[in-house]
Design goal:
Number of strands: 0
Oligomer: single chain
Structural class: mainly alpha
Radius of gyration: 19 Å
Helix content: over 70%
Order of helices and strands: HHHHHHHHHH
Number of helices: 10
Number of domains: 1
Shape: elongated
Strand content: under 5%
């Protein structure tokens, strides 16, 4: 097949993904509102944590804001998986398999809506956070880096949702992942810096949990400004997650289309 066809196919699927997302506010609103609700609860209930010696900032909402972006990325898992599962259940995927559509174009199209949603979430959370008293030490450049990092994270988590949808063909199975994803999230450095976690077992889990490094990379832009180590670890984990999940999705998709 002519390589020039691939961008056209990907563009067509991306347009469909974006239009479907915009037509489903029920898929957008929870992914924006729920993380903000938890941000308000955490900022109000854990504000006294800033008095702990060694806490990196006197503004807990600045500290907690990074966690909000990762929560939103988990919703990306659900949105991507459920959208593809819906296509499988209603027969659209089977019809698509009879066309010359390339699997890579289908995956790219499915993820386009997630990237758009991720950028909308980024702007919303930053606006709410700044109004509530948060600050971004890295400035405008940090916002651009944050937007890039969030896009990669959204693709990575979205790829996990695609794998589940392709392998199960069930929206219910994808939804069943949601609690498990949040368990992983809560065993991270979401509430306290890792060096201030008192329980050894919890600190160990947070240290080996890749999600901690995603949170800490975002958090560094807000608190430290520019922390090369935190950003390198965060981007490294995000890229590895994106490459791994998309590769797994492509492999699973190829197998399903051959059936």
């Amino acid at each position: 097949m002519n390589q020039a066809v691939l961008p056209i196919q990907a563009g067509a699927m991306a347009g469909r993904s974006v239009v479907r997302l915009l037509r489903q506010p029920a898929a957008i609103v929870p992914s924006v509102i729920f993380p903000l609700f938890l941000l308000a609860v955490n900022a109000g209930g854990l504000d006294s944590a800033t008095e702990i010696p060694g806490f990196p900032t006197d503004s807990y909402i600045t500290f907690a804001l990074g966690f909000t972006f990762i929560q939103a990325a988990i919703f990306s898992t659900m949105n991507a998986g459920q959208s593809l599962a819906q296509d499988i259940e209603n027969g659209f995927f089977s019809r698509l398999a009879l066309t010359p559509m390339r699997p890579s174009a289908l995956l790219a199209g499915q993820l386009a809506g997630l990237v758009l949603l991720g950028q909308f979430q980024t702007l919303t959370y930053l606006a709410v956070g700044l109004v509530a008293g948060a600050h971004i030490s890295a400035g405008v450049g940090g916002v651009l880096v944050l937007a890039l990092l969030v896009s990669i994270i959204s693709v990575g988590f979205g790829g996990i949702g695609l794998v589940m949808a392709i392998r199960t063909g069930s929206g219910e199975a994808v939804q069943g992942m949601f609690p498990l994803m949040f368990v992983v999230l809560f065993f991270s450095s979401m509430a306290l810096p890792r060096d201030l976690i008192a329980q050894d077992w919890y600190r160990t889990l947070a240290t080996i949990n890749p999600v901690s490094y995603l949170i800490e990379a975002i958090r560094s832009l807000m608190i430290t400004g520019w922390n090369p180590e935190a950003l390198a670890l965060g981007f490294g984990v995000a890229i590895a997650l994106a490459v791994g999940s998309i590769s797994a999705a492509a492999f699973s998709l190829k197998g399903r289309m051959l059936k």
